Amino acid sequence: MVQCEMCGAETSDPKTIKVEGAELDVCSDCTDFGTQVKTGDSSSSSSTKYSTSSSSNSSSKSGGSGGSSGSSKRRRRDMFDEMEEIASDYDERIRNAREAEGLSQEELAKDLSEKASLVRKLERGEMLPTDDVQQKLEKRLGISLTESTDGDDEWSGGDSEGGLTLGDVVKRKD
């Protein structure tokens, strides 16, 4: 018997699902909380859920069915695959657009029905805008604060020749 990684119930037939990017072995009651990514051999002792070849075929652009056939290697796309992220230079974009319009931080805040301290924190990069504030800023200033991601961008590792490593940068306190 295997324990469900979501609710803790004992199950003899765990299913592997993907929930917000994490693969979990769950009981049949919890399969509705995610997208089923692997079928076939249900014994998790002979295969690992962290295998790169089992279900992560990133060239698939279709919705896929996550089907019941054991030979299907397509994965269903989820909401994170085509998600737009806040741009890394969002603070500069906001400040530059505000200054181009000739507005002070207080005037922009009033136009957005927000506090001036919020605008100051956004321009200093101390906080990320909520979806609501982001939409107000984009509409009022005529800018975009997002960058599109492909969803499968992963760190590929550094090169082994030259370059800095964490050990080169960190100073120990002895």
From TrEMBL:
Biased amino acid composition, Low complexity: 38-62
SMART domains in the record: HTH_XRE
Domain HTH cro/C1-type, first and last residues per copy: 94-148
Keyword hit for DNA-binding: yes
Disordered: annotated span: 35-92, 144-174
Pfam families: HTH_3 (PF01381), HVO_2718_N (PF26602)
Tree of life domain: Archaea
GO MF assignments: DNA binding
InterPro entries membership: Cro/C1-type_HTH (IPR001387), Lambda_DNA-bd_dom_sf (IPR010982), MJ0586 (IPR004451), MJ0586_N (IPR058562)
Keyword entries, A-Z: DNA-binding
PANTHER family: ENDOTHELIAL DIFFERENTIATION-RELATED FACTOR 1 (PTHR10245:SF15), ENDOTHELIAL DIFFERENTIATION-RELATED FACTOR 1 MULTIPROTEIN BRIDGING FACTOR 1 (PTHR10245)
Protein name according to UniProt: Multiprotein bridging factor aMBF1
Lineage: Archaea, Methanobacteriati, Methanobacteriota, Stenosarchaea group, Halobacteria
